[in-house]
Amino acid sequence: MKALIIGAGIGGMSAAAALKKNGITCEIYEAVREIKPVGAAISVWSNGVKCMTHLGMGHIMDKLGGAMNYMSYQDGFSGTTMTRFSLMPLIDAVGTRPCPVSRADLQASMLDWWGREQIHFDKRVERVEQTAEGVTAWFTDGSVAEGDFMIAADGTHSVVRAEVLGHSVERRYAGYVNWNGLVEIDTAIAPADQWTTFVAEGKRVSVMPIADNRFYFFFDVPLPKGLPEDRTTLKADLHRYFRDWSPQVQTLIEQINPETTNRIEIHDIEPFEQLVNGRIALLGDAGHSTTPDIGQGGCAAMEDAVVLGLSFSQHHDIETALLHYQNERLERVRDLVLKARKRCDLTHGKQMEQTLAWYQSLKTETGLHIIEGLKETIVAGPLG
């Protein structure tokens, strides 16, 4: 049995690992010659770490994951602590620590684990077709690939998705711009073992520790789409948007390298009614494109892969296995997309009175409420 996997990102590589565990041959096709991740880092919460371990890649998380032992919210203007608490109760409850990691390092490690020489790069899908016996993909370079079924892990701009849904979809602008990148850890900004977030005005500034003495940072600002901003204006833009913010935030802005900092207009897509059509299945962002506000985008792709593998371990008929995968994932991924959207609106001031009330609640937060929310999301995954 042979699977064609479209996309060699986190979702595609996870899917290949899951199918390989079931003795299924995988041919992986990636559109670009060299993968350049969108976003500097990724929050792999405990459910994602469990998935990576299940897929045989837990050692990658051990190597790349930062020591994130505490969580803190700070007032954006004064820099004073609103709440700070240990994440150990969460780790004890779910059995695995969260691992914020460099996205580039994670993807590179997954490619190396599989074997880069076994991946077909510079293969952009032009069209796909399926019959009762199998699937065929045509690429823009004129080449053709055939297999028994296809996993479309080709991202939020998926080419294959229309073949599954029967129509194209529009991405929805979430209302804010995100800048992200990596800097060396500086305790003048935040403690080295803490996820620290500064909040005010519906904006966020956050740093997370990752491996090799680095902070992953991001800035969120509610803004209209299409502003003429790029790397040449980046520092000036951030100084303007955070002009009156705390010394810690000013220090972070000064340490940013504009050439390695990403500026992204954040989007999501309305949840779909299906993930599978016959012998073609959507996985990862192709099937459920979400905002990053609950840190579950990458984790959801890893979960997809685990469920895909479990489905083939239970069902030998391809279409039955893929339908089982769809049935197991539809409600979960819909919940994650909508939960992230709700969180996005709260944190970015869509209704400012609600955002201000949230700020006020943080001043009396002991950590129990936040940890319970994180735990609820994590344990709903396929591995508990």
From TrEMBL:
User: GO biological process: what's one of them?
Assistant: purine nucleobase metabolic process
Q: Which GO terms describe its molecular function?
A: FAD binding; FAD-dependent urate hydroxylase activity; urate oxidase activity
Q: What sections of the protein cross the membrane?
A: none
UniProt entry keywords in alphabetical sequence: FAD, Flavoprotein, Monooxygenase, NAD, Oxidoreductase, Purine metabolism
UniProt entry tagged with the keyword NAD: yes
Q: Which cofactor does it need?
A: FAD
What does it catalyze?
urate + NADH + O2 + H(+) = 5-hydroxyisourate + NAD(+) + H2O
Q: Does the keyword Transmembrane helix apply?
A: no
Which biological pathway? Answer: Purine metabolism; urate degradation
* Domain FAD-binding residues, every copy: 2-337
Domain of life, per lineage: Bacteria
> Which family does the record assign?
Belongs to the FAD-dependent urate hydroxylase family.
Q: What is this protein called?
A: FAD-dependent urate hydroxylase
| Organism annotation | Vibrio gazogenes DSM 21264 = NBRC 103151
